[in-house]
Amino acid sequence: MKINETGRIGAINNYQRQIETQRKDLDSKTRRKDEVSISTEAQELLKAQEGSIDSSRLERIADLKQQVSSGTYNVDAGKLAEKLVPYFKSFFTDK
Predict the structure, then answer these.
(1) What domain count does the chain have?
(2) Residues whose CB falls within 8 Å of the CB of residue 66, separated by 6 or more in sequence, listed in order
(3) In the predicted model, what is the mean pLDDT of residues 63-68?
(4) pTM for the predicted model, two decimal places
(5) Are the beta carbons of 73 and 67 closer than 8 angstroms?
(6) Where are the beta strands (DSSP E) in the chain?
């Protein structure tokens, strides 16, 4: 009874050699790198957005980030429930 075909091992080795030679060829050639360019219109939009951000909002965001990272941020269950009620009403009335 033949358990393993000895020819299969050679086929795997040939495949691995082929992959290795392809990698060497790619490494020896200069690879083209991806480039990203932002249009002048997009740059103007970004500048306009940066100028319109309210400083109090930035302070609030920084404060929230600090609370979340330190573990002191508490969720108000009442406010959360108020926001979820419309969703669940529409979910159960549609069915």
Answers:
(1) 1
(2) none
(3) 95
(4) 0.36
(5) yes
(6) none
